[in-house]
Amino acid sequence: MKILKNIFSQIINIKIYITFFLLVLTFQVSANENNFEFNISGNINTDREVIFTIIDKMPNNLNEEFSNYLLNELNNTGLFKDINISLENNKYFIDVVEYPVIQKIYFDGNERFKDEELNQFVDELGFNIYNEDGIKNFVSELNIIYSSFGYNDIKIDFSKDISEQNLATIYVDIIENKITKIKAIKFTGNESINSFDLNEVIKSKVKKLTNIFANNNFKPIQVDTDRQRLLKFYREKGYADIKINYNIEFFDNNSVIIYFNINEGNSYKVGEIIFENKMQDEDISSSLESYFDTNSFEDSIYNSSIAESIEKDISDIIKNSGIRFFEIKKRVKLDNKKADLLFEINSSKPIYVNNININGNTRTQDYVIRRELDISEGDAFLVNDVNSLRKKINSTGFFEEVQITQKQLGENLVNIDISVKENQTGTFTAGASFGTLDGVTLVTGLNESNFYGTGRKVEFLINSSEDNSEYKFNTSNKFFLNKDISLSYGISFKESDFSKSSSYEIDKYTFSSGLSYEFQNNLYHALTLSYELEDIYVTDKSTASSTIKDVEGGSVKFILENGITYNTLNNLYFPRNGNYLRFSNIIETPSSSKNGYIKNTITYKKYKEFNNDIASFQTMIGNIFSLNDSDILPNDKYSLGGRWLRGFDNYGVGPRDSRTSYIGGNNIVATKIDYSRLLFKNDDNPIYFNIFNDIGLVWDNKTSPIHYDENIRSSAGFGIKFYSFIGPIAFTWGFPIQDESYDIKRMFTFSLGNIN
Fold first, then answer.
1. Residue 319 structural domain
2. I need a surface site. Which of 61, 555, 612, 665 has the fewest CB within 10 A?
């Protein structure tokens, strides 16, 4: 559409000069130095001044060359369907036949768009002259607009009325027909990457029970964009030779199946890294040698990110040496599944930033983009900084496309033009899960990551299950103190029912504030301070422990949580590759409550997919201890059973005063080992058979519980799990190997949604 705007911008300007004249208008004009005359006829709506302004140069004499020039210039206006030019007696005779000028357009049959919206589109397009090219462009662009909303079977018919003044009234009859829906999305040739992961990458979606709010309208432009997303995804995993095309299968019920045909090629790893320092600076060469001696990239997956990371590190080393102007040229040699990287370092002329121009951000404020940049007007500029700038702007998640161009202004000045295409940043989430352990869990949420274009994140979440209900509001600002640090505030209310396991309930009001930031790729640190108002209700005094009875009522708490997380899992609900490591430190101050404590927990998960099978290892280690020599609430302490020790019920293992009064332990060690074998390969719903072995121990308690031991518990079992059209589903049979008589066992569990 931008191209068409440029094409018709001249026409729009010309229209300003349109007036109504007689059928034949003759005028004479003399050149400044030559006595040539121009006789123009046939113009009805086009002002003579418009025609005359086209003649921006005068001939030295009467000739065919100038006639051809006139003819070409007049044709380029798009105003005339016929032009005749002749020479006679020192005169140029110009006879024109105008295209009709559109004075009004009426639309019929348009339901998706209002008349006002379509007329605005007409104005933007510059469709004001009725000719064949204009009609063709208008129909083409209108089809593109409709197809971007899923209307791919639109029919457009034209009719017109032409007045004696050559003014056209246009009647556009639109038959929208039904929206084309995506019936299925299929991937072929993806041997190394699961179809689930590829579905996560693309924006085209199939509507299922798990994503009933998904927009499954078929949009050809989006499919092409999805292809580019898949290419980028594969390349980031080392597949530099990746080739992807797609084809669409249409059905009579106005639905389609999208086929992405993938030729993966080879996966490349980083081979040899070579740098050529042509600046002949020994200090830089020494620093670079030291850097590559201490940082090994060999056998790392080759992709643009690692290449850019190495390039940035080289750039930082040179900058730290005091050199301001240089250029790094990168070359890549692919051979035998290895990618050799060559970095050539050269001196460059001084270049400074004159202006930074930002366009395309209709919603996002300029300062939100500018604060991501490492440079501003007047700073030294390096050509190699462009990739870094683009990456930082992309990291916000606010933009679908980011383009950065440089415009040289003389020898030492440059303008930087940043053009962005904004993403949709607001989402509505609705989901549900069900299992024999947790019952039915409903989740509803609103999330806006770029609130009013300020870069501020706002979210509201409702999480409701049989034993827990939580209402949460949170807002965060990514740039606290102009640093890449997120400052967040939140309030929440949570009701927790522990009456089945420990004979009490808790109502908790929480006011929190926190700081979080990214250390490096996939590594995050978060620090949160919370103020809590807590009410504890004993539901059965005959079975409740003395600890619960002692703390019944209201209390005030201050809690500081320090968390470090490393996460490379490829899928939140059904991971098949990646690592997850989290350290959590929680301090509840003893001055705010008699239940003051320090709690440290380390959780590690590793998933590895090979030959379509999945192996996983998970472990957790934790300790909690009181700061004021008092016991700690059971819900704050550790328990085993459920997902961390299959074959046992939630809170089924650990110290307890009675079978219905779980009081928990101060220490925990647990390990889960799984192996999942692919039974049926299906792009949408593969089925796995898994076997497992779980081991764990919960121990230590300040009181003297009736049921207590320090014996290891273990279990083994098998199950079936698959990603169904309503979400991940797991059927699990667990059998205790080591147990005690007072443990609460659960041989079979069913889970929908949360199966880890």
1. 269-347
2. 61
